[in-house]
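Entry 14. Ran structure prediction on the chain below.
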Amino acid sequence: MQYRHKPYIIIQAEQFFPDKKPWPIGVEIKEWIAYPPKKQCVQYYVETTHGPVIIQPSDFIITGTKGQKYPVREDIFLEIYEEYVEPPSAEEYFRSVGLEDPEENYDDYILPKSREDIERG
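Output, structure tokens:
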């Protein structure tokens, strides 16, 4: 999924849940037995530019512009980012509002006219 940083920057991010595979790229698991008592321990983490960072279920894993990964808690992520939806092309938009002529020049609707065209009316 893509998300948009309110209001301008588009980022790549995936939400992490241990039981939902495949996990976001970069998520690793560390398991060990703790004594006493004999107990299975599990920790999830992401390697960042500052070293490994522990993540929790529902954290978002953001991929930076250079491929670097970093986690953000769900509540903070949802406060800062909103889902990004690719806008329709000009042709898709005009077809959706009833301009369905395949010979229609859609550029006439979206390109600014030259000064001469405006003066000519």
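The first helix runs from residue 74 to 80. Will compare against last week's run tomorrow.
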